[in-house]
Amino acid sequence: MAHPSQLGFQDAASPVMEELLHFHDHTLMIVFLISSLVLYVIVATVSTKLTNKYILDSQEIEIVWTIVPAIILISIALPSLRILYLMDEINDPHITIKALGHQWYWSYEYTDYQDLEFDSYMIQTEDLSPGQFRLLEVDHRMVVPMQSPIRVLVTAEDVLHAWTVPALGVKIDAVPGRLNQTAFIISRPGIFYGQCSEICGANHSFMPIVVEAVPLEHFENWSSLMLEEL
């Protein structure tokens, strides 16, 4: 999860998020280099005493500042397109989960398990247990097996929502009457927090998302217990 004074992204918990972090670092270095060069040119221009009123143009400079930006843009565009295609890939998911946004909570339906569905409400501040996070903890987490391809179908019942978990590199709109899908593989066990990222009304900030990744055998035990309770 995020922490105070954090400047970068959250630690990656999925292969796609790792790629996004690498792309962010790659692009940020290019931005720093360009900014440094522009700052140097500005300082050199305003501080120099050298002038030549007879210079009208320079074909060499025109060629350089046309070709170099084109190369830079290509070096950014190619990895960006690669990640876009990786994020759209859904290959043989082991589990499909439907996430339905409401004002203001999420409900989950495990389509591969008959009758395994539940609502996920934020735990109120006065009901939190020691160690739980205010405005982020829910009464029923979305539990998934780690190192397994997971497909999530996202929609909404009333208004626009967005199902977002930063550590997994997932952000997808929940649109009433439309079914969007995304996929991810969680590479390590843990609890990953997210929030609705589309302004959806007065309690928009009070419908968190919690994804808990566990080993496969633990997931099977959890699903059996949940089915018995339901």
Automatic annotation (TrEMBL):
Per its record, the protein catalyses: 4 Fe(II)-[cytochrome c] + O2 + 8 H(+)(in) = 4 Fe(III)-[cytochrome c] + 2 H2O + 4 H(+)(out)
Major subcellular location class? mitochondrion
Q: Which PROSITE patterns does this entry report, sorted A to Z?
A: COX2, COX2_CUA, COX2_TM
Spell out the InterPro entries in the cross-references. CcO_II (IPR045187), CcO_II-like_C (IPR002429), CcO_II_C (IPR034210), Copper_CuA (IPR001505), Cupredoxin (IPR008972), Cyt_c_oxidase_su2 (IPR014222), Cyt_c_oxidase_su2_TM_dom (IPR011759), Cyt_c_oxidase_su2_TM_sf (IPR036257)
Q: How is the cofactor bound?
A: Binds a copper A center.
**Record bears the keyword Zinc-finger:** no
Q: Which domain of life is it from?
A: Eukaryota
A Gene Ontology cellular component where this protein is annotated is: mitochondrial inner membrane
Biological processes per GO annotation: ATP synthesis coupled electron transport
What are the alphabetically sorted keywords of the record? Copper, Electron transport, Magnesium, Membrane, Metal-binding, Mitochondrion, Mitochondrion inner membrane, Respiratory chain, Translocase, Transmembrane, Transmembrane helix, Transport
- Cofactor entry: Cu cation
Compartments reported by the entry: Mitochondrion inner membrane
Q: Transmembrane ranges?
A: 27-51, 63-85
Please state every residue range assigned to the domain named Cytochrome oxidase subunit II copper A binding: 92-225
Record's function text? Component of the cytochrome c oxidase, the last enzyme in the mitochondrial electron transport chain which drives oxidative phosphorylation. The respiratory chain contains 3 multisubunit complexes succinate dehydrogenase (complex II, CII), ubiquinol-cytochrome c oxidoreductase (cytochrome b-c1 complex, complex III, CIII) and cytochrome c oxidase (complex IV, CIV), that cooperate to transfer electrons derived from NADH and succinate to molecular oxygen, creating an electrochemical gradient over the inner membrane that drives transmembrane transport and the ATP synthase.
**NCBIfam families per UniProt:** CoxB (TIGR02866)
Family to which this protein belongs: Belongs to the cytochrome c oxidase subunit 2 family.
> Mind telling me what this protein is named?
Cytochrome c oxidase subunit 2
Name the source organism: Mobula mobular (devil fish)
